[in-house]
């Protein structure tokens, strides 16, 4: 049943940045079918409306899910404001997943811009859990400012424990920032990966996705091994409302994750 | 071979009236064409007397007029402002209700009223094709629209072959008319000649054959069968418009940067009329409604149009902010990407988008211009 939202309760909330919150939710009674990294749920804020949000965490315990939401509109603001104990409605899982298994035997390259790190988080966890199946794991993340960086503690742990190479860059550095400044694409030059045997997973603003995919192509990563997660307006998530079209794709059904070989010509057309 | 009787029969006007009574007697809500507010609209019919006997239509891009006919034909008119999606995929529908108790617990339940069992009288071949297209869109994928599926599976379709196409019709070039071959419960062909006013009728489903058996009909005579066939064949020669005979899907894919979009965008008001009258346009938006207590909410779905700025709204603004991009979205979806998404063209050649366009933009003319630009 995907037509009616299923009640989930907020069990933990953490303020990631000034406008972004991660909610861990668990089913009040019935759970939705399991989510795969990259898939999304429609989150219903009672009396306000629904928004599509990719899962940012898939927990084994009590069928819990994490969603990281940036407050940019009426519904996302209401979801972000949900207190612990409050109920939300969830529908899903919807859409295509990252399909990490495509990277088996090769290098995993994760490139995130801003809130785009959220849908990639369960992929990173899965890659760490499956260590040995993949060679190098590179995580390149960009944010507007140091304060806008999501999961900063987790990234530090990841870098310190060194199962992965983590690089972070910001557009506007603040006091005390000693790291990189500039586009996330600049980090590509310093990352150690074998382009021909790399599968890249990219999510962020569309301009960042385009620039990253272009640079990855130049580096020699095959287009079908660049997996991107895209965003369009979405009302139903079931392929019936028509809002999420990107040319021939219905992103709720044929996305949000798609191969760059499929979407490159579509992203090249203005206002498609 | 069909496992029911498909032998054509002949029905007179009294017989058609009996058909409406039989369908109502079977508990069906009969919907068909009738004259109202200067147009032939689709409405619930109590009797066959309400059909538009003796009325015809004059259609041009941006123009629709009723006219009195010299004869008493009931179905010699072309597509009106509505299509059957008005009933199968209504403009507004409640999807669910949600209640919040004092402890903050949510109860969310599907909340649709009981759906009527429709009988559609006079479904044109173009509209029959349109229903088949919406079947694939709304009920043929991984997920089905429950409301649509319920109404559709319960609907009884009486097709009506086209004998007098309008000036804006182009079903022949879209391969959807003027005759019908399948997808109906009953099919009618109106015959009006020196031998009188009658209908050739044949069954296309077991239920159709059952209904037909309840009517007092005569086995169709050779002359009526021949006249019906030649009239429908002649209708194919009288289409007011035609799409260019080419691979429209390829043309759309190759035309994304065409200059013609600027030309049409200079005329298009971005009003969305074409999408509302189109029998296949299915896009919807949602609306959240709460009562005064704030503890009861309803989710409503309503028709939307890709011509609306909010249609493509993301955080930061709409993806398609220019009229050029919105018209291009509509046309390239209808004739091009619809194939990839749902396995066929989204256009049936009914001509409604021309007729109800306030500035008379003609889809066949726009496609012809794109084709010319592509080859020049």
UniProtKB/TrEMBL annotation, chain A:
S-adenosyl-L-methionine is among the record's keywords: no
Pfam hit, one: NAD_binding_1
Annotated [2Fe-2S] cluster binding sites: 236, 241, 244, 252
Cofactor: [2Fe-2S] cluster
Cofactor note: Binds 1 [2Fe-2S] cluster per subunit.
Biological processes annotated in GO: pyrimidine nucleotide biosynthetic process
UniProt-recorded Gene Ontology molecular function terms: 2 iron, 2 sulfur cluster binding; flavin adenine dinucleotide binding; metal ion binding; oxidoreductase activity
Matches recorded under SUPFAM superfamilies: Ferredoxin reductase-like, C-terminal NADP-linked domain, Riboflavin synthase domain-like
FAD-binding FR-type domain boundaries: 3-100
UniProt keyword Metal-binding, yes or no: yes
UniProt keyword annotations, A-Z: 2Fe-2S, Iron, Iron-sulfur, Metal-binding
Domain of life (superkingdom): Bacteria
Protein name per the record: Oxidoreductase
Source organism per UniProt: Streptomyces coryli
Automatic annotation (TrEMBL), chain B:
Residue ranges of coiled coil: none
Keyword hit for Cytoplasm: no
Keyword Iron: yes
SUPFAM superfamilies for this protein: alpha-helical ferredoxin
One term of GO molecular function: metal ion binding
Boundaries of every 4Fe-4S ferredoxin-type domain copy: 257-288, 338-366
Name of a matching Pfam family: Fer4_22
Keywords: Iron, Iron-sulfur, Metal-binding
PANTHER family documented for this protein: ANAEROBIC SULFITE REDUCTASE SUBUNIT A (PTHR40447:SF1)
Protein name stated in the entry: 4Fe-4S ferredoxin
Species for this entry: Streptomyces coryli
């Amino acid at each position: 049943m995907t037509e009616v939202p299923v009640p989930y309760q907020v069990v933990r909330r953490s303020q990631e940045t000034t406008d972004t919150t991660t909610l861990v939710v668990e089913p009040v009674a019935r759970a939705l079918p399991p989510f795969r990294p990259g898939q999304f749920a429609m989150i219903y804020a009672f009396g306000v409306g629904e928004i599509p949000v990719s899962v940012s965490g898939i927990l084994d315990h009590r069928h819990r899910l994490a969603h990281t939401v940036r407050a940019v509109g009426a519904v996302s603001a209401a979801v972000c404001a949900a207190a612990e104990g409050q109920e939300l409605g969830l529908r899903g899982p919807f859409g295509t997943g990252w399909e990490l298994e495509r990277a088996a035997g090769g290098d995993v390259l994760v490139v995130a811009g801003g809130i785009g790190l959220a849908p990639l988080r369960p992929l990173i966890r899965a890659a760490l859990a499956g260590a040995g199946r993949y060679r190098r794991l590179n995580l390149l993340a960009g944010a507007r400012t140091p304060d806008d960086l999501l999961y900063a503690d987790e990234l530090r742990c990841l870098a310190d424990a060194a199962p992965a190479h983590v690089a972070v860059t910001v557009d506007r550095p603040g006091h005390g920032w000693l790291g990189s400044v500039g586009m996330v694409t600049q980090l590509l030059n310093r990352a150690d990966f074998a382009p021909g045997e790399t599968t890249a997973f990219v999510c962020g603003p569309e301009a960042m996705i385009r620039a990253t995919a272009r640079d990855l192509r130049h580096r020699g990563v095959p287009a079908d091994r660049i997996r991107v997660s895209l965003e369009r307006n979405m009302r139903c998530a079931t392929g019936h409302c028509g809002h999420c079209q990107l040319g021939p794709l219905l992103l709720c059904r044929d996305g949000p994750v798609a191969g760059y070989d499929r979407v490159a010509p579509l992203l090249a057309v203005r206002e498609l | 071979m069909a496992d029911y009787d498909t032998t054509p029969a002949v029905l007179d006007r009294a017989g058609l009236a009996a058909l409406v009574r039989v369908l109502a007697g079977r508990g069906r809500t009969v919907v068909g064409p009738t004259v109202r507010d200067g147009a032939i609209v689709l409405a619930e019919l109590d009797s066959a007397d309400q059909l538009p006997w003796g009325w015809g239509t004059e259609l041009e891009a941006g123009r629709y007029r009723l006219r009195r006919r010299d004869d008493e034909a009931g179905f010699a008119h072309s597509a009106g402002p509505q299509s059957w999606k008005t009933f199968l995929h209504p403009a507004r529908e409640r999807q669910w209700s949600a209640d919040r108790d004092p402890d903050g617990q949510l109860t969310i339940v599907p909340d649709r009223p009981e759906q009527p069992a429709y009988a559609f009288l006079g479904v044109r071949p173009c509209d029959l094709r349109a229903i088949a297209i919406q079947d694939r869109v709304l009920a043929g994928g991984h997920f089905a629209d429950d409301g649509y599926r319920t109404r559709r599976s319960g609907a009884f379709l009486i097709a009506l072959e086209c004998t007098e196409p309008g000036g804006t019709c182009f079903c022949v070039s879209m391969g959807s008319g003027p005759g019908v071959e399948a997808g109906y419960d009953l099919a009618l062909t109106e015959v009006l000649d020196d031998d009188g006013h009658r209908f050739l009728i044949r069954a296309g489903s077991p239920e159709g054959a059952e209904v037909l058996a309840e009517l007092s009909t005569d086995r169709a005579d050779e002359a009526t069968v021949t006249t019906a066939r030649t009239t429908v064949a002649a209708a194919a020669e009288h289409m007011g418009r035609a799409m260019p005979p080419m691979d429209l899907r390829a043309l759309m894919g190759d035309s994304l940067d065409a200059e013609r979009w600027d030309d049409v965008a200079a005329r298009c008001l971005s009003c969305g009329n074409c999408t509302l009258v189109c029998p296949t346009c299915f896009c919807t938006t949602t609306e959240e409604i709460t009562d005064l207590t704030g503890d009861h909410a309803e989710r409503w779905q309503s028709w939307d149009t890709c011509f609306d700025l909010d249609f493509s709204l993301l955080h930061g603004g709409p993806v398609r902010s220019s009229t050029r991009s919105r018209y291009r979205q509509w046309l390239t979806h209808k004739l091009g990407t619809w194939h990839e998404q749902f396995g066929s063209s989204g256009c049936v050649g009914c001509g409604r988008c021309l007729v109800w366009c306030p500035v008379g933009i003609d889809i066949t003319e726009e496609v012809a211009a794109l084709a010319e630009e592509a080859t020049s």
